[in-house]
Structures are given as structure tokens and as C-alpha cells.
Amino acid sequence: METRLVNPRTILPIALILTLGACASTGNQKAPAAGAPEPAAASKDDANADALKKKERELQYAKLQFQITELELQADTRGQQASIADAERGVRNAEEDLSDYLKTQRALESTERALGSDQQQEGVRESQQELEELESMYKDEDFANKTKELVLSRGRARLDFSRRGFELAKSRREFQEATAAPRKERDLRETLDKARRGLEDTRASAERKKLSNQLQLMRAKDGLDDLEKEVAKLKQPAA
User: Fold this and answer.
1) What is the 3-state secondary structure (H, E, C) of the chain?
2) How confident is the model at residue 185 (pLDDT cuts 50, 70, 90)?
3) Per-residue pLDDT, 199
4) pLDDT of 80 strictly over 80
5) pLDDT at 183
6) Which residues, at least 6 apart from 60, have a Cβ–Cβ distance to it below 8 Å?
7) What would the mean pLDDT of 168-177 be, rounded to a whole number?
């Protein structure tokens, strides 16, 4: 078997070429830039920025909602005050109606009924006198029977109407004094009592609503403060 000898001159160039190729391959790889953040740190910063934007939006929404709540509660307070004023006006009117009736109207109505009764009674008396005068006159004078009966019949009719009117006025007066007047006074007192209870209920309702509004406003303010703290905390640089 024939043995071939390797020429030393060919070995040296080949080794040199292999060495240069390895160096070139190593130089093509980019080294990380000095001071550049690592991928995990960059992802954490992006998450914090997104969380901050979200909380800032929530804070703006909460501020607007707080303003809306304040305006709504102010309008509700004005409505409650108007309701109380109406209820107070109702009580005042009921008190005045009852006072007017007891001090003036009841006495006037009673006086009017007494006057009407007296007028009716006087009408009966006058009609009675007229009839008696006619009977006396026609008794002494010689008049035609037809005329005499006609005149006397009219006199008797007027007397009858006067008596019936007087009895009717008397019955009406008794009814007014015994039934209608006390009933009206009772109704006026019940109206006043109802108005007073309504005023008390309105005031109690307004007080409950006031406390409820205060609680709602406090909760809205606390929520707003919490969001402001969260936003401030997210804005603080990481330690």
C-alpha cells in the first residue's frame, strides 16, 4: 500500500481560512445595546400605563357623575321644600276656614236663618190680619157672593202659603242648627287635622330624603377620593 505524504505548506492556509471564518461568524451576531430594558420589564411598564389610563378615565367619569348627583340632589331638595310649603299652606288655609266659620260665618248663617224665620212669621201674621179684615168687610157689606168668595179665597190661600213657608223655614232652621252647622264644623276640623298630618308626613319624608341624599353624596365623594388615590399611586415611579 502506497503512503501519501501531506505537504505542510497546504495545511497552514487551510487552518487560517477556518479561523477567519469562525471570527466572521461571531462578529455578525449583534450584542444587546447598553442600558436597553429587558422584555419582561417593558411589558410591565406597558401594563402600568394601560392601568393608569383606565383609572384616569374612571376618575373623569366619577367626577362628572358626582356633579350630576349634586345637581340632582339640589333639585330634589328644592322639590321637598316646595312640598313642605304647599303642606304648610294647606294647614294655614284649613285653620283660617275653621276660624272664619266659628267666629263669623256660623253666627251670620244663624242670624240669617233667624231673620228668615221672623220674616216668615210676620208674613203669616199679616196674611192672617188681611184675611180677618176681608172677612169683616165682606160680612158687613152687601157684595156679590162670587166676588166675595173670590177675594176671601185669595186671602185664605195667601195665609196658607205664609203658614207653610213659615213651617218650612222653621224646619230648615232647626236642621241647620242641629245638623248642618255641627256637621260643617266637624268637616272643617277634620280637614284641618288631615292637613296637619299631611304636613307632618311631608316633613318626615323630606327629612328621610335629606339623610338619604347626604349618604348618597358621601358615598359618591368617597368613591371619587378612592379613584384619585389610585391614580396618584399609579403615577408614582416604581421603587
Assistant:
1) CCCCCCCHHHHHHHHHHHHHHHHHHHHCCCCCCCCCCCHHHHHHHHHHHHHHHHHHHHHHHHHHHHHHHHHHHHHHHHHHHHHHHHHHHHHHHHHHHHHHHHHHHHHHHHHHHHHHHHHHHHHHHHHHHHHHHHHHHHHHCCCCHHHHHHHHHHHHHHHHHHHHHHHHHHHHHHHHHHHHHHHHHHHHHHHHHHHHHHHHHHHHHHHHHHHHHHHHHHHHHHHHHHHHHHHHHHHCCCC
2) very high
3) 94
4) yes
5) 93
6) none
7) 86
